[in-house]
Design goal:
The protein is mainly α. The protein has four helices and no strands. The chain has helices at about 1-10, 15-25, 30-60, 65-85. The protein is globular, with a radius of gyration of 18 Å.
Length: about 100
Amino acid sequence: MIGVTIWGLTFGGAATLLQTALADAAGDGADVALSMNVVAWNSAIAGGGLLGGSLLDIWGAASLPWAVTALAATGFLIAWKARSHGFRSGHRLGHGNGK
């Protein structure tokens, strides 16, 4: 129960934050970008099942921690590289900056 509570508190708002960052970064193309976000999430779910099943079939359960480590490192690298585009500092609507 404690683990589920911590997971909910730390990850519960991630989808909203990611969609907001994506809409901010996309500007006028926000509708298309948010549609592609849905495609990316669903593709990641399907791809995760395919990759996990393949790893289990070929190398067994011992391969899963290594795959998760590689995927997590890739995710952190992408987030680190994209932090200035999606999560700009300051007010997101430009209020209060002299405009």
